[in-house]
Design brief:
- By secondary structure, the chain is α/β, with parallel strands linked by helices.
- It is built from ten helices and nine strands.
- Helix content is 46%, strand content 17%.
- 38% of the residues are buried.
């Protein structure tokens, strides 16, 4: 079966779909057989990103890597029990269908607490949780004392991940490698920036994740969405400037930190 990579948290705007897209393309460029499962049947941001990519490829006659892709939508069955059973059956059917023919399955979760999101988390081999460089996002992971910056207790998302880790272990005795990445980091030094980093490092052992630098605050990440491109594609589509090269190196460092590519 494929290795299952889940990208999720319970807050929108943290760069989940941008992170997902760069991980997908990075794995494809390494020669991996990769498929994507979009569990956000309402927003479908990753799906829209991939549709934009396919349109750009067709318009410009390019040969760019594309993953297999499917959307698992929320059930419309009336009762909660029936809806959850329906969603679980359809999600697990996609895992069974795609798993044998791919090396990696990337699951992009909605930015909210839903049954499908929890189900996706419980199947993760690698869970990637992007958070913005803000205590609003850190609050997803833990309650922090405003004066001392001491971690008081895990927050609901961290508790949910702990529960899904138990579900995973009970199901097949396997563990989830949880990695929190810090996105949209400003290039300017600031007290808030230092404090967020301090708290995330303290949380690493307390909550049980690995902490990695993610992607800086760069306009290029937002601009690429409409074309469906990633920074890893730019060499094939035109020239690349120094700022884009620096951003691409951030992506490369993230993939190395996640142990998804080799340093070559």
């Amino acid at each position: 079966m494929a290795r299952i990579i889940v990208v999720g948290n319970e807050k929108g705007g943290s760069g989940k779909s941008t992170t997902s897209m760069h991980v997908l393309i990075g794995l494809l460029l390494e020669g991996g057989r990769v498929a994507a499962i979009d569990l956000d049947g309402r927003q479908r941001t990753l799906t829209r990103y991939l549709e934009n990519r396919q349109a750009y490829i067709s318009k410009h006659g390019l040969r760019l890597a594309m993953p297999a892709h499917v959307v698992v939508t929320p059930s419309e069955l009336p009762s909660r029990a029936e809806a959850e059973a329906d969603e679980a059956a359809r999600f697990e059917a996609e895992l069974a269908r795609l798993g044998p023919d791919h090396d990696f399955l990337l699951v992009d979760c909605p930015g909210s607490d839903t049954f499908l999101a929890r189900l996706g988390h419980s199947h993760a081999d690698l869970l990637i949780t992007p958070v913005n460089d803000s205590f609003i996002d850190v609050d997803l992971l833990a309650t922090v004392d405003a004066e001392t910056l001491r971690v008081l207790k895990p927050s609901r998302y961290a508790e949910m991940v702990w529960e899904q880790r138990k579900q995973r272990f009970n199901r097949d005795r396997q563990s989830i490698d949880w990695v929190v990445i810090r996105n949209r980091v400003s290039h300017l030094d600031a007290r808030n920036k230092r404090h967020v980093g301090q708290v995330l490092q303290a949380l690493e052992k307390r909550v049980g994740f690995r902490f990695l630098p993610g992607l800086s605050e760069r306009v290029i990440f937002r601009e690429l969405f409409l074309s469906g491109l990633t920074l890893l594609d730019l060499d094939q589509t035109g020239s690349i400037n120094m700022a884009q090269a620096a951003a691409r190196q951030e992506v490369r460092n993230l993939l190395l930190g996640l142990n998804l590519v080799t340093d070559s």
